[in-house]
């Protein structure tokens, strides 16, 4: 292959695009913003808002902007990057000097990100990745113009044997309607709870004790109302968060890599080498299960000692579209959602009994402790039903070296992973299972993804364990 | 198909575990006694007796059972570990997923000439505890060597420009 004359094979040290000053300045401001806002709010509440306080606040703001611009300029001035035939180098430092070299052969991808500031100037933040994408790159060039970007791309493409970027393959885009549905049904408790807790803390820290006492709800009714209001606010926040994160979500298969673009305010572009995708998770959330909708996530393994990261492959799909989607974009891991083998019928009570026993214990304690605690008794029945639901959801299949395992926690999750890509596998059996001749199989695909089937016949489990090891 | 692992941990491991059980249940005994001193009746007797019984059982039975059940083996293609008293676990870690290995020694292990081998993969780590120091070093070097030579069936990047 004769190289095009366009791209130089090495660069002299160069600075970032001038807009990097603004990027660094805004970063500095943003880091300092939250404590400052809290400070201003507290002082404002304490002394009341008069003209002098306003003027003082304004002065602080102007001073802050000047200081952060100066810092941004200094940071920009001291940041250089260059390329030698072997590696890309990055040197930055305000006080301590930090120099990073990434060998060109180790570069897995060049991810682009465009925050509001970068978009204003028409430049990109370029993340030089050696891992599976998603997280921050080993080298982050905060502002890169089109010319530099072209040089960089050519340079990295040169080093790779496979054709990249040019051969744009199948593509899938999240429609606007589906984005809305995805946002409305996201309901991520993990996002909501910290938000609520944070809100409470903010309220607590920004109020004097007298105010707080005055604000404490006087009746149970108002307390419930307040809690419901908070939940609604938290839910709205999570909806907005999902829209911002998943807007115009697009996946493209380009040769041996997946390119993912997404985001409303900050546009992100990430490239994931397919060989680093160890497993796909089809997640049918509680709110989505009735509508036969699912989200796709994937476990991407990092390079050498880097940690694995689970990331979104697609925010929302109809359940029956999952297989065609995977066939198109990730045939290496495509598999069917249905037709899994269930655990034996006699295992049903083992799924139901432990949660039922827990429920009974809790409800008895509640009953004894509180005078009107009898309402807690149905808890056992509820948890038993949950256990049976887990039994009905459980299933597994190993076909052509591809493992599929379905489990239910809150969401129903199906893991697809080739047996050859597992990190380890395990056969587990407790005392009760030994008496009942049952056993569990656990297959780990990464830090976040492991497939576990509980209570299989001990012979089935043993055979599965051996087949996994045989490949 | 996969043969059971055959190697055991160092015999001194049982003494380490006995010590751990004494410490753990010792706390329970002390707490039980001091709470019982405030009470009387059947509950006080129970609080005095039960932790002591647990301590005796835990010290006499658990360590030797655990030691008997602990088996491991390093094969060219995989690390094979079987352990557990109440729940038995049999774990297979393919050699080509091993990222690095190290040995660790806490003060107790140092005093008994023992060491723990930790095998790291991208999904987490697996430990083979309480081996003789010389065995541990040998196992660590062997795993490191095997992990270096174990290769993905089809290497993706071939680059010698």
Could you provide a short overview of the structure?
The complex is a heterodimer of chains A (471) and B (161). Chain A is an alpha+beta fold and 471 residues long.
Number of helices of chain A: 13
List the quaternary state of the chains. heterodimer
Q: What is the mean predicted local confidence, pLDDT of chain B?
A: 86
Strand content of chain A: 25-35%
Largest pleated sheet of chain B: 3 strands, antiparallel
Main beta-sheet annotation of chain A: 7 strands, antiparallel
How many strand elements of chain B? 6
Write down how many β-strands of chain A occur, each being a DSSP E stretch of 2 or more residues: 20
Output the radius of gyration of chain A: 27 Å
What do you see in this structure?
The complex is a heterodimer of chains A (471) and B (161). Chain A is of the alpha+beta class. Chain A is built from 13 helices and 20 strands. In chain A, a hairpin with a 5-residue loop joins strand 3 and strand 4. In chain A, helix 1 packs antiparallel against helix 2, helix 5 runs antiparallel to helix 8 and helix 10 runs antiparallel to helix 11. A three-stranded antiparallel β-sheet of chain B has the order 1-2-3. The radius of gyration of chain B is 21 Å and the shape is elongated. Chain B is of the alpha+beta class. Chains A and B meet through strand 18 and helix 13 of A and strand 3 of B. Strand 18 of chain A pairs antiparallel with strand 3 of chain B, so a sheet runs across the interface.
SSE topology:
The complex is a heterodimer of chains A (471) and B (161).
Chain A: E1 11-15, H1 20-47, H2 51-78, E2 80-83, E3 87-92, E4 98-103, E5 109-114, H3 116-121, E6 124-129, E7 139-144, H4 146-159, E8 171-173, H5 176-184, H6 189-206, H7 209-215, H8 220-246, E9 250-254, E10 257-262, E11 267-273, E12 277-284, E13 293-300, E14 309-318, H9 322-329, H10 348-369, H11 378-393, E15 395-399, E16 402-408, E17 412-418, E18 424-430, H12 431-436, E19 438-444, E20 450-457, H13 458-470
Antiparallel strand pairs in A: 1-2, 2-3, 3-4, 5-6, 5-11, 6-7, 8-9, 9-10, 10-11, 12-13, 12-17, 13-14, 15-16, 16-17, 18-19, 19-20
Helix pairs in contact in A: 1-2, 5-8, 6-8, 10-11
Chain B: H1 13-38, H2 42-60, H3 62-69, E1 71-74, E2 78-83, E3 87-94, E4 98-104, H4 107-112, E5 114-121, E6 124-132, H5 133-149
Antiparallel strand pairs in B: 1-2, 2-3, 4-5, 5-6
Helix pairs in contact in B: 1-2, 1-3
């Amino acid at each position: 292959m004769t190289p095009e004359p366009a791209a130089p094979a090495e660069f002299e040290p160069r600075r970032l695009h001038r807009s990097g000053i603004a990027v660094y300045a805004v970063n500095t401001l943003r880091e300092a913003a939250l404590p400052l806002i809290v400070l201003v709010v507290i002082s404002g509440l304490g002394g009341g808002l008069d003209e002098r306080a306003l003027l003082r606040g304004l002065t602080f703001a102007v001073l802050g902007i000047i200081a952060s611009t100066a810092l941004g300029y200094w940071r920009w001035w001291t940041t250089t990057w260059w390329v030698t035939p072997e590696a890309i180098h990055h040197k930055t430092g305000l006080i301590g000097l930090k120099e990073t070299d990434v060998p060109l052969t180790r570069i897995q991808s060049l991810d682009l990100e465009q925050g509001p500031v970068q978009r204003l100037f028409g430049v990109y933040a370029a993340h030089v990745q050696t891992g599976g994408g998603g997280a921050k790159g080993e080298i982050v060039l905060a502002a890169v113009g089109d010319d530099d970007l072209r040089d960089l791309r050519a340079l990295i493409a040169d080093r790779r044997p496979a054709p990249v970027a040019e051969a744009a393959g199948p593509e899938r885009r999240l429609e606007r309607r589906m984005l809305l549905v995805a946002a409305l049904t996201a309901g991520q408790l993990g996002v909501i709870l910290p938000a609520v807790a944070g809100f409470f803390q903010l309220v607590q820290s920004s109020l004097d004790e007298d105010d707080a006492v005055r604000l404490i709800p006087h009746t149970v009714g108002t307390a419930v109302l307040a809690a419901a209001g908070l939940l609604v606010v938290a839910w709205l926040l999570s909806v907005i968060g999902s829209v911002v994160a998943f807007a115009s979500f697009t996946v493209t298969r380009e040769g041996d890599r997946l390119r993912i673009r997404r985001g409303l305010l900050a546009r992100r572009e990430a490239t994931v080498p397919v060989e680093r995708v160890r497993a796909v998770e089809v997640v049918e959330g509680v709110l989505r299960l009735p509508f036969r909708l699912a989200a796709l996530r994937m476990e991407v393994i990092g390079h050498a000692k880097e940690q694995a990261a689970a990331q979104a492959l697609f925010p929302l799909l109809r359940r029956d579209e999952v297989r065609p989607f995977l066939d198109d974009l990730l045939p290496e891991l495509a598999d069917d959602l249905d037709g899994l083998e269930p655990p034996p019928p006699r295992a049903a009570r083992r799924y139901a009994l432990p949660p039922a026993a827990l429920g009974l214990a809790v409800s008895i304690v509640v009953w004894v402790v509180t005078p009107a605690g009898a309402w807690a008794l149905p808890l056992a029945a509820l948890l038993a039903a949950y256990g049976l639901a887990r039994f009905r959801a459980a299933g597994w299949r190993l076909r052509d070296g591809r493992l599929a395992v379905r489990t239910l926690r809150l969401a129903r999750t199906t893991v697809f992973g080739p047996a050859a890509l597992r990190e380890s596998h395990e056969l587990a059996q407790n005392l009760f299972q030994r008496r009942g001749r049952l056993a569990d199989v656990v297959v780990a695909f990464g830090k976040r993804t492991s497939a576990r089937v509980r209570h299989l016949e001990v012979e089935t489990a043993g055979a599965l364990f051996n087949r996994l090891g045989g490949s | 198909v996969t043969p059971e692992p055959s190697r055991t941990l160092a015999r001194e491991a049982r003494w380490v575990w006995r010590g751990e059980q004494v410490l753990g249940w010792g706390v329970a005994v002390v707490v039980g006694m001091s709470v019982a001193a405030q009470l009387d009746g059947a509950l006080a007797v129970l609080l005095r007796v039960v932790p002591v019984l647990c301590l005796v059982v835990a010290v006499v039975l658990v360590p030797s059972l655990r030691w008997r059940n602990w088996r491991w083996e390093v094969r060219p293609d995989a690390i094979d570990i079987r352990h557990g008293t109440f729940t038995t676990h049999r774990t297979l870690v393919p050699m080509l997923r091993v990222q690095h290995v190290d040995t660790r020694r806490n003060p107790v292990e140092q005093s008994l000439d023992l060491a723990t081998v930790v095998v790291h993969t991208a999904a987490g780590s697996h430990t083979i505890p309480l081996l003789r120091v010389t065995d541990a070093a040998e196992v660590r070097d062997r795993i490191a060597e095997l992990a270096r030579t174990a290769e993905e069936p089809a290497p993706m990047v071939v680059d010698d420009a």
